[in-house]
Write a structure and sequence with these properties.
mainly alpha, Cytochrome Bc1 Complex, Chain D, domain 2, globular
Length: 141
């Protein structure tokens, strides 16, 4: 099995080989991802984080949540290197870790926003596997 840090490194190498500069995630960011991976390993069928699954999850429209936020992109937008905006008009810093270096470094803050946003978009908590996949995707941006 691949470790979460290996997945993140592979994402970075793939992006560089495609000509896209991606900063290596910090130790704190890797630690947050590793925490979700450890929890997700207890879920049936989880074999490791997937940035591709995370990308699909982030951009998909979901049922069950609030009608005005069926997708993560409802507030965060489709270009994650640019600021998003809440339904109330409040600015949201870019989701791309390469643009907002302090993003995904505090486990409690990351969990707070996953909890709130998953309820709004999905109408339920995200699974640890969904969080690990989404974070693997966002750390690779």
């Amino acid at each position: 099995m691949m470790r979460a840090s290996s997945i993140v490194c592979a994402i970075g190498l793939a992006a560089v080989s495609l000509g896209t500069a991606v900063a290596e995630p910090s130790a704190a960011q890797k630690g947050v991802l590793d925490g979700y991976v450890t929890t997700a390993r207890q879920e049936a069928g989880f074999s490791g984080p997937s940035a591709e699954r995370g990308r699909k999850f982030f951009f998909a429209e979901h049922a069950g949540g609030k009608a005005d936020s069926p997708a993560c992109t409802s507030c965060h937008g489709k270009d994650l290197t640019k600021p998003g905006e809440t339904r109330a008009g409040k600015a949201i810093e870019p989701m791309a870790a390469s643009v907002t270096a302090t993003r995904y470094t505090d486990p409690a803050n990351v969990e707070k926003w996953f909890r709130r946003n998953c309820r709004d978009v999905l109408g339920r908590e995200c699974t640890a596997a969904e969080k690990a996949d989404a974070l693997a995707f966002l750390l690779g941006l």
